[in-house]
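To fix ideas, we reproduce below a protein record of this kind.
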Amino acid sequence: MIRQTIQAERIKSALTNTEFTTSGGRATFMLIVSGRGVFTSDEVERDVAGPCLIWAPTGWASQISVAAGTRGFLIRMPVPALGRALPTDVISAHVREVVSRRIFLSELSDRAIQSLVALFNKIETELHELEPGSETVVDYCVSLLMIEIWRAAAPPLQATQPQPHRISDSFLNLVELHLQNHWTVGEYARRIGVSRDRLNEAVRCAIGIPPHQHIQKRLMEEAKALLVTTNLQVAEIGYKLGFGDAAYFTRFFRRHEKLAPSKFRRTFAPLWRSRSEEISFADWP
């Protein structure tokens, strides 16, 4: 349930100082609309006063003590929720870069504050009411929240094509998010905002193989892992990986591995069970 993944909390410190803490396993977004406090994360301690935006990415345990009368809100987000919500188009790499670091912003426009407050209100409502489709609505709201943070914290984008390393990074991230969707290389290029030829060149330069080969390689790695580590039927594994037809999945697997999925399982599942160390399926035959 989304209630167990994303947490939204209002800051309403009335008569006494109040402390909020977060573990490093969740990213933390905080907007202090009015009032003041002290933000502490690892060795960083900083006085903050509203209006102020604070962002602490995953991996940074943090604590904030707010003074009596402070108003604002706090959103805690685990890694899977961020992965679902981060934009997947041309601005993806830029947003990821910004939200990978700690952010303190004290100069916020009225428009930005209004947008952030509206997004928090919508997230809070969806988490509380749990209507059909609430998880999807929350993901979209968090995606918009990431964009608002990026807009507030990042310099304006230049009207130039992304650098090759940004193109390849965006492609690799999108593949992990949408592997089961079986996007074409052209679709990945469109989402990143470059031509298919430019994507092909950037990915070849970064990882040594073209985009379509990397996509097929990742599908095979996931298929092998599921075959030897789960009891799912071959057809179920195919459906889980986005193949609409079990026979097509079998043909795809046999074309790349020269073995049927069932024979691969009989051959390698015992090997996996007999080994105590972690196996990298990328290195398997």
